[in-house]
Every structure is written in C-alpha cells, then in structure tokens.
Amino acid sequence: MKAVGVKNGKGNADALFIEDGVPDPVPTSNRILVRIKAFGLNRMDIMQREDRYPYPLLPESGKIMGVEFSGIVENKGPDCSGDFQVGDKVFGLAYGGAYAQKIAVSEKMLMHLPSTLSFEEAAGIPETSFTAIQAVHLVGNLQPGQSVLIHAGASGVGQSAIQIAKVGGASTIFTTAGSDEKCDLCRSLGADFAVNYRSGEDFSEVVKRETNGRGVDLIVDLVGRDYFHRNMSSAAMDSRMVLVAALSGSKVDDFDLRALLNKRIWLMATTLRTRAADYQGQLRDLFSEKILPHIKSGEVKTTVDKVFPWTQVSDAHKRLESNVNAGKIICLVNDD
After folding, report:
1. Model confidence, pTM
2. Of 56, 232, 246, 312, which cross-links 250 as Cys (Cβ 3.0–4.6 Å)?
3. Domain spans of the chain?
C-alpha cells in the first residue's frame, strides 16, 4: 500500500511524501482492516513529524502518523465479536497509522458511519470528540447547570467541547479564540461569551463580570502557561480545571500553590493517545450514547475547515501550523 512518509525520518512540512511499497497491515485478533477514505490532521502529527512528540508512543502507534480516519471495512480478525461487516462504512480512532491507504484497528475503537455524515466530516470527529468528552465529562465531571470556560474554542477539540458542554446542560459557556470570525463560530456552536485574545480583552475579566465575581465551575485548557494565572482567577470555589494540552508552554513562572488552596481548585491533566484500548473503548461507548445521536440529528456539528487531497499533505500541515484554520483539516485518500 501507499502511506505518508517523512524524508530522513523527521523534518518540516515539505519533508512529507507519499511512500509506495509499505507493507499492508494485517487484521489479527480483534482488529478490523479498513480501507481509508479520509483522515484528520492534529497537532500531535506535527510534533511526531518533527520527532518531538512529548509522550511515549505505544508500540501500536508505529511510524505512520494519523490517529483519526473514516473508510470501509475490508477484513476482520478471527476474534472480532462486534457487528462490523465487510463493506460497512466506518470511522474511528487509532494510535497511529491513519496517513495511509489501509489501517488495522481494534474493533473497540471503531464506529459505524451515520448516513448523515460524509467521509470527510467523520474523519475529523474521533480524536477531537473523544478528547472533549473525556475532558468535559469523564475527567471534568461537568454537571447540568454548571458553567465552563473552554480555551482554543475554534480548534477541533474546542468546538467539540463547546457542543458537548451545551448538550450536557452547561448553564454558561465561555471560550477564547484568535479572531472575531472564530469567536462568531464559537457562539454559533453554543458559546455564550467568546473572547478574542488578540483584541486585548482579558477573558478572566469577562468571566468575573458575567458571573458577578463567582467564576466558572470547570475550565478546559489547551493553552497552558500563558493562561494559567488567569485561569486561577477565573475559577470558582471548589471548581475543576482539566489540562488537555500546553500549546503556549508547560512551565509556569511565579506560580503560588495558595491559588489552588484558597479556592479548593481540583487541577487535573489528561491525555488520550497513551490510554489503553479498553479505556478508549469506554470513551467510544460514551460518545455513541451521549453525542452521536446529536450528530445524527444535526444538533452537534463538525466544522470542516478545508479538505486536501492527500498528495497535498504538506500544504495541509502548513495550514495547520499557520493556525488560520477554524475547524478540522482533512485529507482525502485515493486508491491510485
């Protein structure tokens, strides 16, 4: 088969190329072989391409990038017990290997493709939605009637988190984004207040004003260092903060632990790719129960920023790196 490779093992976006003669994956045990139609891009792909991925990759990850995809079932392993059949349209999550024509993944990480979704839309759902539902519900424990602050609201994870919080009964949703257009998008997805961080407006002041000084019950943060002190200011008593990523850096200067003690803030961190397949299967089941029906009905939307043919994967990576996208960047895979 063909797959996306990186010249010399690591490099910039221009080092990406379509490599021929890559061994086909084999669907052993409970794995299912899927012919990929589309895959979604994530920032972890950039870090893996540059050989600076900050977490240890599991053996299942392999050298091929990509963790979310859509496609058609081609074969099944001998231990598969689910209802997936050859020819079914599916989408799912992987530890790696989605930048390719074929992938073999655990049936626990696969879902049937709803008739209301295209391959392009579905390919951008699993990583972002699973990360968001993990942060909002499994770790963040958002309860109906509670308020939430979601950073990077126009990112794939941010958009999913806004909508998951909305259908989960959040009373007020605050978010941050990098342009007025992105803020408008966040509001269209359910955010009550969207702060353009490039405008000079301070999100912590907005939270303080709109909550009468109380703060929010849950903070979902993908930014890290640059927002940490203002997150503490935005947090309510007995609130929770879930750290999902640290895009601005991971080392916080002049941090006083008293900020946590004074408000009894629960500070938690979570990752997805390093989780075991059983855990990711639980997330799939939770997603299928709580979110997928809303996707089928159109209440929860997937915003596709731009679709590239996979022969232009370098351009797709450059767009992601430029941070101009609002929503998912998708690559379509051909069989040639």
Report:
1. 0.90
2. 246
3. 3-125+303-332, 129-269
Contacts of 19 (CB under 8 A, 6+ apart): 2, 3, 4, 5
User: How many whole angstroms separate alpha carbon 66 and alpha carbon 21?
Assistant: 18
According to the model, what pLDDT value does residue 177 have? 96
Bridging pattern class, strands 31-40 and 68-76: antiparallel
Instruction: Place domain 3-125+303-332 in its CATH homologous superfamily.
Output: Medium-chain alcohol dehydrogenases, catalytic domain (3.90.180.10)
The pLDDT tens digits for 149-202 are 999 999 999 999 999 999 999 999 999 999 999 999 999 999 999 999 999 899
According to the CATH classification, is domain 129-269 in 3.40.50.720? yes
pLDDT digit string, tens, across residues 238-276: 999 999 999 898 899 898 899 999 999 999 999 998 888
Q: Which helix (H) or strand (E) holds 241?
A: strand 235-243
Q: What sign does the dihedral 59-60-62-68 (CA atoms) show?
A: negative
